[in-house]
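Predict fold of ATP-binding cassette domain-containing protein; 307 aa.
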Amino acid sequence: MITAENLHKRYGSKTAVDGISFQLQPGKVTGFLGPNGSGKSTTMRMGVGLDKPTAGSITIDGKHFAQHKAPMRTVGAVLDAGATHPGRTGRAHLNVLAATHGISRSRIDHVIELTGLGGVVGKRIKGYSLGMNQRLGIAAALLGDPAVLIFDEPVNGLDPEGVRWVRGLAREMAAEGRTVFVSSHLMSEMSQTADHLIVLGRGRIIADAPIHELLDSGEKRVLVRTEQVAELANAITSRGVTIDHLDAETLQVTGLDPRSIGRRALEAQVIVHELTPQLSTLEDQYMKLTGDHVEYRSGGTFGEAPQ
Ligand SMILES: Nc1ncnc2c1ncn2[C@@H]1O[C@H](COP(=O)(O)OP(=O)(O)OP(=O)(O)O)[C@@H](O)[C@H]1O
Ligand SMILES: [Mg+2]
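Predicted 3D structure, encoded as tokens:
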């Protein structure tokens, strides 16, 4: 279990993490989302003692990382997959890590097989691709068979098969009762992987909820198809209702449920061909939640001259 209590981190005048508290549950994948610079990596680094909180604490199973006698058996982390010696082979890297914790040769072989590194593990790391490095990082994290896993953007650099593999691995680890904490920029990825989401914006928590709650809380939109768009629009226009004309026969309505739209259409004698509630996507929700919390906003369209 990972617990953060009033966790703060300042770098000079910059506040990277601004008083966050959360508790991650075992048996679940918790997704950690937030725009660039919102404090995800800083939080994860403090979790494994690579950075010191300015105030507050983050503990794993009730203890600070450094207080664990055999930390690799408690928590496995992939924070910077490139943090390896380029001149060593993948197997030598794993051997060194395993030796610090008395981890057996058979366990090393097992994680090599699990991460699909068999073909390259005898080669020097400097020749590894981004994806191979990522897999080696994951292999190292799994070495101690830890109950807590922290993955900072684990799918960075992986091909579609690799992305699917990480997703499956995270789910499998959680199903085995482990606490799995994964940060990602891919909202769609999170909707398929995470049970629970913590969303950060400028160092603060802006949502901490089961993923289905975030999806359900989205604004409901309804797609309506009719040949009498003008009459229908007229019949449903009222305060709080937004109507977008998608094409000559299609309206997208926000702020009114399908039942009410159907009733008003009947009253106005409008024939409706289709009435479909649209599910809000996690992406929509994420954009809405983080809209005011983005630090680095993209400029205009590429190629556009500045105004
Ligand atoms: N070592 C450091 N020294 C100074 N500032 C830092 C340091 N590490 C992080 N920061 C700042 O703290 C803020 C949070 O950074 P962090 O890397 O935690 O964000 P993040 O959410 O992981 O972003 P990304 O999505 O881009 O990985 C940023 O403004 C960053 O510039
Ligand atoms: Mg980061």
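The domain at 221-279 is CATH 3.30.70 (Alpha-Beta Plaits).
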